[in-house]
Specification:
homotetramer; about 300 residues; alpha/beta; Alpha-Beta Plaits; 7-stranded mixed sheet; 4-stranded antiparallel sheet; 13 strands; Formyltetrahydrofolate deformylase (chains A, B, C, D); one-carbon metabolism (chains A, B, C, D); EC 3.5.1.10 (chains A, B, C, D); hydrolase (chains A, B, C, D)
């Protein structure tokens, strides 16, 4: 079993800056895997992990995620991407190159309830969340102390229906100022306008406190209580302009019973929300997710 | 640890005919537990297990389930029930006495898909389902062989919208002929009329192949697939005249992913449906369930 | 369904100082429930919730947990306890009265890994942990900042085999100074001496990072990795003088696969440890646990 | 969403005889994926699904599972395998070609408890188990009726320590007569000799009624009860000559509590055993498993 420990060592000694990821989506046809893997091999990229999925053998779509190792990747990446363009064009590929040492810049939006924000900050502190949390935005002051204690800028932007437009203008300005790649709504209880959502398409992750499509909208725990369900859940999804109907990334549930009142459901639910959102965010920042139609393909 | 084995022995040697159950529901007030437990004690009934629940300390409802042991219970039960009437009346109790050696008479309704029926028959064969399955009714012939192989009468009653009335008349006649206490819809794919449902109020248990209230109605697996959920579920509930909206008894889920097509979801779902329905039926026949409004209180 | 919201209101308005709990363990005999419930009724205590368990109908042990409401309980509790002595003596009862407004004084022990400590502090901050965390003890300085930030005294006591005796002497002195009722070992990686454990019998809760009895002792994640298990777990238990063999309070697991190396198992495990320990601690401080032999009876 | 239904149609219309699988294990080096995928492409095999795993980026082992489609595969397969030999030799590959329309021939061994056997037979009847169950062997007569009712040969071979040698000789003869590829021990309660196990290396799947490595050997439920665990489990693994220590394929657990005695644990456990064994068998017959050392790599 020394081999196992060996693996550990190897992994940890592997240089992050030499690790790259490639996500590809294109019409399915024969030989795509050969084309992509040969391309990488010819560029001295060694495939460490790859997962592939075809939505339909004959005429559907083809999806692949590849993690590779390449010495001096930083110097080579520009050429690598340039050379890939030809292949991509020929095979009508949507694709995305990302690099382990180039971390996404993430903003977290929160309202009064801080448990999801806290979970993300903890994971981040533990080094379990491979991203840069560059700013926290809230319509309440509650979270300021522990956010600033971690050296993360905290912006208080009061919000309500009336002032939505200027609030979002201010938020967009902030996101640009902080060069934000990903927005996480960690129980941010404000409706976003279609303009705002479109502006950050496929880059906003929300946690909804129900097992969607059950209990779309407000008061899910109250409604779960009234329906007498025996399990409650939480759902993390990309935000689109259909409320709570965006592509689902992750869901989970916990058992409840007749003795649990609404406040008990909320307590239990907080635990589910925390872990479901944390998983969804991890998969996004590790480029494990491809959105196809209104669904997600998650390469674990 | 001999004690543990001892417990086994004791349990098995305990005579079933001396075991009784009492379910009580009444307006909550001080001293109810004292009243009921003292009554039982004075009638030489020793409480083996009891669970209690108050929906609201000050002015809500009170619910209790008691299992007791009483020597020669069979001779005493009539008097016991008679004496209890006074208390019940005074405290405005809904209540129900049942006896371990008086098993419910159960009918199972099934259509083409036999997995839920099979699960119940297996559990029953193993002695894990403490009821008498007295008849199986189906609108298809498929299940006849293995039902009759177990010596259970099988009645084929073709059904469709047009002939619903006479079909149900025939079914009600059958239920009376077999003195049926409980109807289980084990994937019986016919809509029941309000008359039929009312005739067997709180005595029909259905399995719905979704995590209610998600995907009410037809084609839940197809709709789950199209929505891209990450968990699918099944729900067992009492049948009321609101489709799929009766009191939920039990629910469970399994994880699925983007590679699972509708037929995969159905395979996975069959496993969930089987165990969810079997649990709900067990709890009903063990008198563990009290229906309150549109919810169930299940005393595990 | 207004009733449901009503319940909420009621609950919240109910005065904590009028809520009491009674735990009883005694030889099982006829009429115990009647005796206890009548006693409480005669003392104007209204039973809100009760759970009971008999390890063996004929000649085993009887266990009951009762939550009750009583006006001006604080003035009456002394008399209540005094009057109960007679009954308790007659029926050879072990029993324990506790009061919702008298919170346990809890100490948390931690080493380098802070995730379990953090979980408890969060739950406590959210008001989900009904205890007073009076002191944190560690053999490392790491946790000091965020512990003191919450206004909780932090004591750094370096520890190792050689100086174990004086370390424990110092710790016992501290526990007495802080009048500690409960010690939580939140990944405290030091062996305790029999003297220390005996001094706090049934008052020390540990989290072990495996699904006991699998992987007792050191390096459970390494050994789980080497064995190639498909689920990893965590176990919370009372500490006895048999390493990792005390009465189990709670356990849970998560799925892993061949791609997860030891560091992945540790990440996943941290999530399990956090929630398993938090649950066990909650049940202890809510007086839901009775230790019987080397097992726990947990009244949920 | 019509596309989704389309997918269904396509899948079902795809001819099984044109679907092949390739499992490869070899020392990890750059370009393996390119080599294999190019080979398949050049032989007009279109990769439908592929999963890959490297135990160690620099110098570990490489594992890949590929499902492909190829017109007239039956005529081409011989040449395909022949041509692959060169590559395999050069890259020191262990590999295995299998074809969807060539189903494994499976034997099921059972003793008194039939629940695991029944589960496999049901799945098989439902068309959910893609294998040929060619014979059932038992040291009891109990299962004969329903096995023969399905037209499967049933062989009663009494067994015990004394006659083990001739019993196994008889069993091996039977396995050869029926050309058995896979042996499933569905709660077959006899110890097998090293000779027997070696004879069917990596081709015997067992279900052990505990969460291994906890409770290795006899009486796991009794011991789980005595230890007071809060979850019980089952483990399916390949049989080696170390009792209950072979490579684990799948494990699962269910929650239990203090009210569950040994007979309850056995009831609950039966449900776990059934689904854990069924999953393990499915993965084996779909060639999803590679054994590496004492672990399994399962490509879901």
């Amino acid at each position: 079993m020394t081999s196992s420990t060996q693996v550990q060592v190897k992994k940890s000694t592997k240089k992050l800056e030499n690790l790259g990821r490639l996500l590809v989506k294109c019409p399915d046809k024969a030989g795509i895997v050969a084309v992509v893997s040969t391309f990488l091999h010819n560029h001295n990229c060694n495939i460490i992990e790859s997962s592939q999925y075809s939505s339909n053998p004959e005429q559907g779509m083809f999806f692949i995620r590849i993690e590779y190792h390449c010495d001096n990747l930083q110097e080579k990446s520009a050429q690598l991407e340039k050379d890939f363009e030809v292949i991509a064009k020929f095979h009508e590929m949507d694709y995305n190159f990302s690099y382990r040492n180039e971390r996404l810049r993430t903003a977290i939006y929160v309202s009064k309830e801080a448990h999801c924000l806290m979970e993300l900050l903890w994971e981040w502190q533990n080094g379990d969340l491979d991203t840069d949390i560059v700013v926290v935005v809230s319509n309440h002051e509650d979270a300021r102390p522990f956010v600033e204690a971690l050296g993360i800028p905290f912006h208080y932007i009061p919000a309500n229906k009336e002032i939505r437009k200027q609030v979002e203008a201010e938020q967009i300005r902030l996101m640009e100022e902080y060069k934000v790649d990903l927005l996480i709504l960690a129980r941010y209880m404000q409706i976003l306008t279609p303009e705002f959502v479109t502006h950050f398409e496929s880059r906003i992750i929300n946690i909804h406190h129900s097992f969607l499509p059950a209990f779309i909208g407000a008061g899910p725990y109250e409604r779960a209580y009234e329906r007498g369900v025996k399990l409650i859940g939480a759902t993390s999804h990309y935000v689109t302009n259909n409320l709570d109907e965006g592509p689902i990334i992750e869901q989970d549930v916990e058992r409840v019973d007749h003795r649990d009142d609404v406040s008990d459901l909320k307590k239990i639910g907080r635990q589910i929300e925390r872990r479901v959102l944390a998983k969804a965010v991890k998969w996004h920042i590790e480029n494990r997710i491809i959105v196809e139609g209104n669904k997600t393909i998650v390469f674990h």
